[in-house]
Amino acid sequence: MDDPQVHGTIEQLVAEEHELWERESAGKASEADRRRLQDVKVSLDQCWDLLRQRRALREAGRDPETADVRRPEVVEHYEQ
């Protein structure tokens, strides 16, 4: 995935996240909605991590196409 594709995926996930949060705040979220919200959060973390990897590789003069999506267990345990 190149940078524009990753950004597009992020935009889609953010829109879905907002929709799910709206359902939750209105008290209309199902258990499936809550599970999906958690999945969306993880996917967003993976996308942002991928962009950071690509940027770092590019800045180091390396090929950003070698960046890989990291497992949820990895990106969910980063400290910010």
Rounded to an integer, what's the Rg over CA atoms? Answer: 15 Å
Spatial gap, N to C terminus:
25 Å
Beta-strand proportion: under 5%
Mean pLDDT figure: 94
* Poorly predicted residue ranges: none
Structural class: mainly alpha
- The coarse overall form would be elongated
Number of domains: 1
In DSSP terms (H or I, runs of 4 or more residues), the helix count works out at 3
Number of E-type strands? 0
SSE string: HHH
Binned, the helix content reads over 70%
Largest sheet: none
Describe this structure in words.
The chain contains three helices and no strands. By secondary structure, it is an all-alpha fold. The chain has one domain. The protein is elongated, with a radius of gyration of 15 Å. The relative contact order is 0.14.
Structure, briefly:
This protein has helices spanning 3-25, 31-59, 72-75.
Key phrases:
mainly alpha; 3 helices; 0% strand; 80 residues
List the helices and strands and how they pair.
Elements: H1 3-25, H2 31-59, H3 72-75
Helix pairs in contact: 1-2
